[in-house]
Amino acid sequence: MLDRLWSLGEFRVQRAPRAGLVMLTVRDSFDTPFHLGEVLVSEAEVVFDGHSGCGTICGDEPERALLLAAVEAAEHSGRAAVLGDIGEFICRLEEKSSKERVRSSKLAAATAVRFESMKKETVDLGSLGG
Amino acid sequence: MGYVAVKGGAAAIENAEKFSLARRAGGASALLKPEQIREQLHLAVDRVMGEGSLYAPDLAALAFKQAAGDTFEAAFILRSYRTTLPRLGYSEPIATSGMRVIRRISAAFKEIPGGQILGPTPDYTLRLLDFELQDESASRTRQRIRQLLQEVQLLDPLPERFPKVVEMLRREGLLVRHRHGSGDGDGLVDITRQALSFPAARSAQLQTLARGETGGLLALAYSNMRGYGSVHPVIGELRVGFLPVSYKNPGSGSVECIGEIQVTEAEVISRIAGAEGPAVFSLGYGLCFGHNETKAIAMAVLDRAMACEEPVAPSEDQEFVLTHVDGIESMGFCNHYKLPHYVTFQSELDRLRNIQIGQRPPEDTPS
Amino acid sequence: MKPSMPSKAIPPPADWRDSGPPARGHYSYAFLDEGAKREIRRKMLKAVAIPGCQVPFGSREMPIARGWGTGGLQLTLALIGPDDVLKVIDQGSDDSVNAVNIKKFVSRVTGVAVTTDTRAASLIQTRHRVPEEPLQPHQLLIFQVPIPEPLRLVEPSERETRRMHAEADYSRMWLYLYEDIVKFNEITVGARYPVLVNRRHLMDPSPIPRWDVAKLNQGQALCLFCAGREKRIYAVPPHTEVEPLSFDDFAFRAEGFGGRRCGRCGSTATYLDEVIDDAGGGRSYSCSDTAYCEKIRRRGGARGADGPGEGPA
Amino acid sequence: MDNSDRRNQKNYRSLLQAMSRPGRVFRLDALGAVSSFAAAMAIGECLLDPEVSLCVIGNGGVSTLQAVLDGATQVRTESLKTADFIFVCGVRSQGGVRLAKRGRLEFPEEGATLVYCMDSLPAGASDRFRVRLTGPGITGKGGIAPEMRGVPVEEFQELMAVNADYPLGVDAFFVRPNGEVMALPRSTRIQVR
Lengths: 130, 367, 313, 193
Known about the structure:
The complex is a heterotetramer.
Chain B: H1 9-25, H2 34-40, H3 42-52, E1 54-55, H4 57-66, H5 71-83, E2 87-90, E3 94-95, E4 100-105, H6 138-152, H7 165-171, H8 202-210, H9 214-225, E5 234-248, E6 255-272, E7 281-289, H10 293-305, H11 318-322, H12 327-336, H13 342-357
Antiparallel strand pairs in B: 4-5, 5-6, 6-7
Chain C: H1 15-19, H2 34-49, E1 55-56, H3 70-79, E2 85-90, H4 97-110, E3 113-114, E4 123-127, E5 140-144, H5 158-166, H6 171-184, E6 195-197, E7 201-203, H7 210-213, E8 222-227, E9 232-236, E10 242-244, E11 272-276, E12 283-287, H8 290-298
Parallel strand pairs in C: 2-3, 2-4, 4-5, 5-8
Antiparallel strand pairs in C: 1-9, 6-7, 6-10, 8-9, 11-12
Helix pairs in contact in C: 2-3
Chain D: H1 3-20, E1 25-27, H2 38-47, E2 53-58, H3 62-73, E3 76-77, E4 85-89, H4 96-99, E5 113-117, E6 131-134, H5 153-162, E7 171-175, E8 180-184, E9 189-192
Parallel strand pairs in D: 2-3, 2-4, 4-5, 5-7
Antiparallel strand pairs in D: 1-8, 6-9, 7-8
Helix pairs in contact in D: 1-2, 2-3
């Protein structure tokens, strides 16, 4: 995939892919932000037709970081068409991961506990007492 | 290959390393591949990531293999690898309400809007050794999984979002609004850049607990649950799922989702906090990498315990808890006693012998 | 600027390939990134400016276990440059297992020269000992420290000990020593003997024997202390007063060896290790500072009580 | 090790020697000392980054020095009262020192670091012999006179006042374009005759 892009001769690696850390900031249930910990990411920078693109992706994925950077650079330059079927490739990737998500969601759905509950009516939580 | 007589420790160190290599990989069994560990020992990998405070499943699996299964050692290896990587930036603050849930239960109500979702849990199995696993047949296991997938095919997937139980309680005015008893001003502290000082800000407390060692957190929380402390916890909600990581692209500046991380979140409700003010429930919060429910619950109980105005038990003393739950620090210091101490011991001998002699030897040695 | 159109004939090499995956096992000079070095350097300057005061710092995790010298190591890595010569000792010995381990790591990430000769070293990282030979002004002595807080002996809470330092309220430490004397007619503190620096800050000299404590007073070289696990840096500049706590009627006493000699070099003026020879309990003694002992032995051994100066000054 | 890291390492060792031997002059590799701020830049690149804050005061060249330091180190800019580092153009702080933060009793190390960027020509006859320095890092009972020429007695008196209740106080470097540097930590006791 990358070979095909680079064979066009207009893509250039601005900064080689490198492993880095992103510190995750999360909000707790009091809405207080805190740092949960760091996630490993791969980051790369590519120049296409004078426009630079930066790609960051979780995990040890130097080539996907390059791909994302190339896509962004191409889009910035307004000549996204040069990406050709890259778009489909990325869509297929996204499709695959979303299918996995649906699959695990259905697996979880199958574990929903079905109580033999009365007719549903709103439960007045306040009535439960302090 | 002859042994070069290397003075002192060098040869011994190398041979010790080779001996542990032989211990790990000298057997007849096939060498473990990290992806086998990542997939089939995923709970160990989650624990190592949490305690190593680095979300990188492949590397955590590699560290677990390198450490021959010692989670302390594996978390330590991950922690020191972190030091070699540049910090590229901070993610945008992520709200956990957007979690893609695969497990979500509450002990506070029989039924909760969105339902009690058991998800992947052995909680209700009988813990009897499953001897079939001794020679588990790949085909039969794959077949059972395929069959399960077919069965669930017709089901609707879970909704995108689930309402939070604590949110419902808060709307009813039953839950404490803000957090009291936390550190001096609640600035966002990063304990990888600033040493802890006490009282510690809430952000420092949660970050320290999140990277804490599971056993240490459990022991402290358990002491509180058993009576050394006043938290009578009810799990308002326990979630296991995936959080999107949103990160501002350094080039374009637009915020993108660069991946997902699995987390476990526990929200613990417990009896009325302080005496003053309207009677309300108070809340303890726990969040950690991967699927580690024991740790998340222990975190939430300790988070609530440390909010006590007057700490009575160790688990309620913020300084006591936060300085003793880091596995890399505690394991390191515990094992440092293996290092030679003969100079200090010599000094102790000198003191003891003097005391036994009973009287002070004449002024002969230079003061 | 628009890149020039490539010549049609040969497409440029797929340069993304040779950019290669992130280099594994390649570390920046001295392992720490420049940002970490800067923070440690800033905090060291403050520690020197306030002798004996414990300065908190954002301690990094090292490939060496906490409690095994990560503090001393971080100072060495923040200080070291290509023209330094490094000596690393543990219990006074260059060949001690952990000293070898640390030396191997530092030379791997810096390529710096190492030595066992105290005189030849510009940086000396040490655990539990001060070299017997007096140091020179250009040298830096870096101590590995397990517990930086002298008052931890009498007060577990950091918040409380920080207040005691703020108010220079060291009464509980004096009380502790006094109770020792009442109970044992002796101060039982062996190593980590508390000292007062510049007449203001109580300091833990790290677990060096009392034999070495006097060497810190009005020394020639800058002494730097770092506890990695506890995340504290502190310092004793040269020509600075370092007074072990003692009572007028109960002077501070170094360890005594009852006139025994080192089995290898014959010195009676160096700190000795007691080695149990056989099951019967026979004892022999040898210098803890092995490199210095070797130096005396090669010079034909110590005659009588001579040594680097009659015992610790 | 690239050469800017190498220079920072070497310069840091001189700063550390200077701080542990107050009143003595040491030398920085001040990259050819062309501009009058070369030595100040050398200290800036060695110690400043986004984790600390800077405030530049003094007469003349303040904005240029501020811009140059910002550009090279991405240091944060803050007011005189809260800045971790205070660079002084010239050698008179006109009382600015008194506003600098001196740290808290529990955390005295939070006190500011001052860097006096002196110009090359010593201002008038040096009255450094009226000043006597004693304390940690200084040999001899009677102490020494500061080796750096051209520091007015009034500035010593300012530092004396600010560092009166040790361990609260500030720590100062005096630096010349040719790379000469002298330190005056708060632990130094200053007497003026």
